[in-house]
């Protein structure tokens, strides 16, 4: 049996302890952990791709483009579209590639190997004839290690050069073909021509501008259908066009050099002696209000 007097003393001690605790809690001397600064090691970039914060910091509101509250790329609200643009001009130069060889098809059944590499010296009359027409020697390239377009086991050569009269291709191509036939034991197997412009940057900038306008128009239409309102642009990046699936570049890069093989398309854009086209596509993300 418990002693009633002892129990009463314990009850008084517990009540006293609780009273002291409440008095301390109600006083103005209690400690509140300070709120960490949101400016410490924090960053928000235009595209929202690199928002990083140290452990233990906090942010009430970070305002990004368009007035939207952002807390990192994973929570970036927006609408993303791809815009397409192009710009055209008259070409002032042509990149020409001549493929030269004997054009035999199939495999030899004799003991003599059919594959015979063309000696670069044999092609010298062709390059000299080109130079006499005013073609800069620095733009002439000769490659004798080329696979023939007329079958496996055949060696061919290629002569690539730049021609400054894109509106007069016939004269230079006739000259090249006749020189090959008359001064070598080879034949002209293929001709590839890419029309280009020496200063492409202004065209590419016009194409970018058109692509950006197209992206804005697409975004506005999508936002209207979805019942949303667009904010400012928060991210822009170049988007590979359909031609990239076939290893063909876009923009000015598509006019800088011929494709690796004769039978690959030099460009998915308009390309002729009267007009060249520079195509670009931009992926654009708009904030939502």
List keywords for this structure.
Translation Initiation Factor IF3; 3 domains; 25% helix; 289 residues; single chain; elongated; alpha+beta; 4 helices; four-stranded antiparallel beta sheet; disordered N terminus; Alpha-Beta Plaits; three-stranded antiparallel beta sheet
Commentary on this structure:
This protein is of the alpha+beta class. It folds into three domains: 40-76, no CATH class; 80-89 and 199-288, Translation Initiation Factor IF3; 93-196, ACT domain (Alpha-Beta Plaits, 2-Layer Sandwich), CATH 3.30.70. The protein contains four helices and seven strands. A four-stranded antiparallel β-sheet has the order 3-4-2-5, with helices on one face. Strands 1-7-6 form a three-stranded antiparallel β-sheet. Helix 2 (124-132) packs antiparallel against helix 3. The termini are far apart.
């Amino acid at each position: 049996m418990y002693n009633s007097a002892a129990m009463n003393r314990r009850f008084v001690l517990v009540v006293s302890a609780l009273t002291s605790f409440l008095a301390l809690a109600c006083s103005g001397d209690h400690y509140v952990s300070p709120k960490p600064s949101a400016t410490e090691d924090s960053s928000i970039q235009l595209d929202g791709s690199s928002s990083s914060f140290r452990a233990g910091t906090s942010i009430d509101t970070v305002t990004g483009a368009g007035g939207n509250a952002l807390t990192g790329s994973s929570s970036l609200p927006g609408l993303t579209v791809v815009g397409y643009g192009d710009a055209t001009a008259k070409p002032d130069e042509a990149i020409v590639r001549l493929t030269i060889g004997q054009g035999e098809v199939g495999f030899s059944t004799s003991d003599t190997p059919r594959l015979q590499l063309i000696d670069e010296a044999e092609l010298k009359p062709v390059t000299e004839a080109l130079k006499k027409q005013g073609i800069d020697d620095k733009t002439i390239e000769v490659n004798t290690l080329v696979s023939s377009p007329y079958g496996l086991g055949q060696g061919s050569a290629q002569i690539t050069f730049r021609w400054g009269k894109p509106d007069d291709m016939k004269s230079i191509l006739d000259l090249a073909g006749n020189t090959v036939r008359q001064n070598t034991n080879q034949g002209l197997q293929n001709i590839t021509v890419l029309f280009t412009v020496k200063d492409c940057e202004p065209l590419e900038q016009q194409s970018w501008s058109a692509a950006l306008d197209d992206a804005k128009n697409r975004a506005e239409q999508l936002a209207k259908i979805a019942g949303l309102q667009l904010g400012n642009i928060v991210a822009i990046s170049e988007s590979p066009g359909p031609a990239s699936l076939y290893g063909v570049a876009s923009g000015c890069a598509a006019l800088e050099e011929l494709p690796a093989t004769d039978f690959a398309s030099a460009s998915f854009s308009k390309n002729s002696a009267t007009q060249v086209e520079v195509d670009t596509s931009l992926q654009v993300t708009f904030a939502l209000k």
